[in-house]
Amino acid sequence: MSVNNFAPKLWNKAVLVNAHNNHVFGKVARCEIDAPITKEGQSVHISGIGSITVGNYTGADMDMQAIRNTGMDFTIDYSKYINFMIDDVDAMQANVKVFGPASNEASYALMDESDSGLNTLMVAGAGLSTTADGDVDVTTIISGVAEMDLALKVAKVPKKSRWLIIPNWAGTKLLLAGVYHAQDLKGNINGFLTNVLGIDMYESDNVGVEAPLAGSYRSVAFAEQILSSKPFEPEKRFGDALKTLYVYGYKVIWPGELCLGDWKEALDTVI
Fold it and tell me: Half-sphere exposure of residue 218, counting CA atoms within 13 Å on the CB side?
């Protein structure tokens, strides 16, 4: 990467695209915001309306309901950076392009920060929970999934809008249970496993090992942006350097559509 050839817009796009390919919690937090992020500390608005009243038609004049704006704001209050240098000597000796690998590493590092924070937010803000499922093994894992899906069903979350994020060990048990097959994962990104049980299932390193999360795609709002990427030449070194500023914020919008599970991994005696 040369300072003279560096294109900030291309770098920013590559970092965010790579991040989205691995960003499980960011993938399910789809509640839309009204405007793009322009600065750190910005207040972001989410539009919303109240419930619609159904009346009985009798032929008389109908009452007209005034729609109530139930939108809310949240703040872009997280700010992270990366700042690294590629030594000129190393660059000349390495017969590879460093832009791709560097963007991959940068996106993963930045993604992991916001992904982990989203998990913490959802655990604290979940308005639903399930009873403790002790000793979850390959024979009971489907029951655990069904229980969390039922919690969302009772909350009237549409079937096509339900998701579940499970720890890696639970994903392995679903594989052993024959819920999906390894070849089914070819081409899948964002940690997606399967939806054959009627709920979109993902696995993530950032979900608690005993605390799977389920919800609706509108239950959490998340907004992120790379505000600045600047290449420069370090004063006291021969090399090219890059610093990038990444900001984000998130908020639980519908806690009644967010469910926290309680699973305990058990050894399998039958497969």
Answer: 14
CA separation for the pair 7, 103 (Å, rounded): 12
The number of beta carbons lying within 10 Å of the beta carbon of residue 56 is 6
Q: List, in sequence order, the alpha helices (H) in the chain.
A: 8-20, 24-28, 88-93, 99-125, 141-154, 168-176
Asked if 126 and 213 touch (Cβ cutoff 8 Å), the reply is yes
Does the pTM exceed 0.85?
Answer: no
Distance CA 122, CA 247 (A): 19
User: What is the SS3 assignment for 40-81?
Assistant: CCCEEEECCECCCCCCCCCCCCCCCCCCCECCEEEECCEEEE
Domains of the chain plus CATH, in order, are 8-49+70-265 (3.90.1690.10)
Residue-wise pLDDT for 102-129, tens only, equals 777 888 888 899 999 999 999 999 999 9
Integer Cα distance of 178 and 83 in angstroms: 45
CB 260 within 8 A of CB 129: yes
Give the pLDDT confidence of 254-269 residue by residue, as tens digits: 999 999 999 999 988 7
The secondary structure element, H or E, covering residue 213 is strand 213-216
Cα dist. 175→85, 212, 251 in Å?
42, 17, 33
CA-to-CA distance for 29 and 18, rounded, in angstroms?
17
Rounded (10°) angle between helices 141-154 and 168-176: 110
Which of 6-20, 50-64, 124-138 comes out lowest in average pLDDT?
6-20
